[in-house]
Amino acid sequence: MARPTHPGDSPQAAEIAARFRTLAEPILSDLGLELVDAEFRRETHGWVLRLYMDRAGGVTLDDCQRVSEQVGALLDVEDPLPGAYVLEVSSPGLDRPLRKAADFARFAGQKVDVRMRLADANGRRRYIGRLMGIEGVTATVEVDGAPVALPLDGMDRARLVPEL
């Protein structure tokens, strides 16, 4: 699935975030964590390098601290980022994005909100419903009682919908 574009993103910021993902993923994996996403964005107080991580059972404050220390040390050595920035490490939240095929398998049965890049024959781009699962590179979402097949490579974004 294509990475969504965030307000304030530039091609250079997206390239830096992709390079950061490559550097951070082994650290998280060694700690038993999954890298959900990374972004490098300009915000009102300056540049922010944000890392989202997860694991079955959730992420603790201790996890965030360990990752921040280890990733911070790696960034000091590798120095892949231009200028000053703030490193933020957190969980993806209850409305976690779904990016990989494994995400769609893991969260089968949960409510999702999927926006496709292109509209279907009826002009519909947004699908909110129950994620039934994934087969190959196509997720199936039950929308209004009917299954809808949605190819991952056509998705603009997909997120869990919290059910409180």
Task: Return the CATH topology of the largest domain.
Answer: GMP Synthetase, Chain A, domain 3
> Could you spell the SSE succession in H and E letters?
HEEHEHEEEEE
CATH architectural category of the largest domain? 2-Layer Sandwich
The termini sit apart by 28 Å
Alpha plus pi helix count: 3
- Name the shape in a single word: globular
Q: Describe the oligomeric state of these chains in a short phrase.
A: single chain
Total beta-strand segments: 8
What is the count of structural domains?
A: 2
Give me the secondary-structure category.
alpha+beta
CATH class of the largest domain: Alpha Beta
Helical fraction: 25-40%
**Looking across the biggest beta sheet, what order are the strands in?**
7-6-5-4-8
Low-confidence stretches: 1-8
Tell me about the largest β-sheet.
5 strands, antiparallel
Rg of Cα set: 17 Å
Please, could you describe this protein's structure?
By secondary structure, this protein is of the alpha+beta class. It folds into two domains: 80 residues, 2-Layer Sandwich (GMP Synthetase, Chain A, domain 3), CATH 3.30.300; 60 residues, SH3 type barrels (Roll). 27% of the residues lie in helices and 35% in strands. The strands form two sheets. The protein has a five-stranded antiparallel beta sheet. It has a three-stranded mixed beta sheet with strand order 1-2-3. Strand 6 and strand 7 form a beta hairpin. The N terminus is likely disordered.
